[in-house]
């Protein structure tokens, strides 16, 4: 995964979730490890990621996202067609 995508995604998480820091951000953390990652924040993250990367997720994909790493995998999937 390219570093530009990771940087963009970290910025989105920082924007949406309180207490997220770029220096300690961990893509493998589960959503339950993020204090503010509730259902509303989940939809905000999905919307911001779709907008920033010019992609659209399927509803079943949105439901399955449980860590930042999942976003990276879906972004790669969409970018590689």
TrEMBL record:
SUPFAM superfamilies (alphabetical): ACP-like
Residues making up the signal peptide according to the UniProt record: none
InterPro entries found in the cross-reference section: ACP-like_sf (IPR036736), PP-bd_ACP (IPR009081)
Start and end residues of each Carrier domain: 4-79
Name by which UniProt lists this protein: Carrier domain-containing protein
Lineage of the organism: Bacteria, Candidatus Beckwithiibacteriota
């Amino acid at each position: 995964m390219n570093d530009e995508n990771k940087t963009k995604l970290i910025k989105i998480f920082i924007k949406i979730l309180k207490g997220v820091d770029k220096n300690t951000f961990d893509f493998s953390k589960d959503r339950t490890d993020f204090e503010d990652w509730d259902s509303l924040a989940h939809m905000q993250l999905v919307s911001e990621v779709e907008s920033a990367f010019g992609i659209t997720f399927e509803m079943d994909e949105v439901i399955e996202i449980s860590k930042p790493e999942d976003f990276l995998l879906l972004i790669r999937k969409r970018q590689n067609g």
